Amino acid sequence: VQLVESGGGSVQAGGSLRLSCAASGNTYTSSCMGWFRQAPGKERERVARINTATGSRHYADSVKGRFTISRDNAKNTLYLQMNSLKSEDTALYYCTDLPDWGQGTQVTVS
Asked: φ and ψ at 88, to 5 degrees?
């Protein structure tokens, strides 16, 4: 599966961004897709994941109540709506359909 993220950028604290991830290739085999992030000097962290069949969602405690993961199956696109952004959300965000990864999109919150 090929994954291409978009939607990153710079935003002030308290603001919002929506990340998108366009998937192509053998997407019919996808069962779980998600978003990871990695900040400089920190370990990679799974932010959210969604079961593409059941729609069940799981979030890291650090983003619960602020981030929402969703998927448009018709468009083969994964989204991450990020609200009430904090400086600690600054990171490179990756879309995943393991074992495949996107190239990442930068989110900077100041």
From this structure: -70, -5
Q: Determine how β-strand 91-97 pairs with β-strand 32-38.
A: antiparallel
How many residues does this entry show for the chain?
A: 110
* CA distances (Å), origin 10, targets 14, 68, 89, 107, 110: 12, 19, 11, 6, 8
Q: Which run of H or of E encompasses 36? A: strand 32-38
Locate all alpha helices (DSSP H) within the chain, ordered by sequence.
Answer: none
CA distance 7 to 19: 5
Closest CA to 12 of 92, 68, 87: 87
Dihedral sign, Cα of residue 45, residue 4, residue 96, residue 18 = positive
pLDDT tens digits along 18-62: 999 999 887 666 678 999 999 999 999 999 999 988 889 999 999
Q: What does the alpha-carbon distance between residue 70 and residue 57 come to, in Å, rounded to a whole number? A: 8
